Amino acid sequence: MQLGRIVLKIRAAGTSLGANVLGAADLNAVMTNTFTPKMPIAFVIPVSEDAKENECHPSINQIVYERFGVIVAIPTDGTQKDKTGLLAYDQLHEMRNELFGPLIGWDMGFSEQIYYRGGKLIGIDRAVLWYQFDFEYKSRIVSNPDGFGEIETTTIDNRAPVSSLPDFDRIWAQYILTPSVKWEDLMNDPSLDLPETLVPADMTQFIDLTDDPDAGPYGSGFARAFDFFIRK
């Protein structure tokens, strides 16, 4: 895992954590000593790796699920204004949104972008609330030119381009309910309120919903008569 990149990404995001984002070694030093932060602080740690079976033999093509955690420590100020720790929980909610910004959807050059896997309370006392947010991404082990396995990386510029087609916001459709219905009658039916620009589609684009499986080339929605097209 490239946790150093993740630490720097959060630091550069302008969150309320500022530069108070550290690594696993720093967390170990904190946990072994009395620690009462004056402001929120976070630690990025490795959590787990799970790998699927190799999909290609004798070469290598194996998906790895890499999970890391962001542990935050938030002062509860339990001896003064916030004796119940409620303000710390509210701050935790805002901090989660701040972490989502730089992390979720971030393409680090592996098989899949980072996504959120959930969170859990680690501990709380009159001084500190500890909470862990878990994130995950998929990487892939492939064969290098020498035949050995390595994690595949792809630069953003080499990603498959996203389609430039606009999103569809409406779909016009018409079903033939019986073999006797005529297309011209449907087009001229004022109750359907079809757009004037609607162009009659080819009949093979329609699905025949009649009870007779042999009434039309598609039968009962492909259930029984689909093989009409391959019979000789």
List keywords for this structure.
6-stranded mixed sheet; disordered C terminus; single chain; 2 domains; flat; STM4215-like; 4 helices
In helices, the fraction of residues equals: 10-25%
Report the C-alpha radius of gyration, rounded.
Answer: 29 Å
CATH class term of the largest domain: Alpha Beta
Distance between the termini: 58 Å
**Topology, number of strands:** 6
Can you offer a commentary on this structure?
The structure is a single chain. This protein is an alpha+beta fold. About 15% of the residues lie in helices and about 25% in strands. Strands 1, 2, 3, 4, 5 and 6 form a six-stranded mixed beta sheet that branches. A hairpin with a 3-residue loop joins strand 4 and strand 5.
Element layout with pairings:
Elements (H helix, E strand, L loop, with lengths): L2 H9 L9 E2 L1 H8 L9 E11 L9 E15 L10 H18 L11 E10 L3 E16 L5 E3 L31 H5 L45
Parallel strand pairs: 1-2
Antiparallel strand pairs: 2-3, 3-5, 4-5, 5-6
Please summarize what this structure is.
By secondary structure, this protein is of the alpha+beta class. The protein contains four helices and six strands; from the N terminus they run H-E-H-E-E-H-E-E-E-H. 14% of the residues are buried.
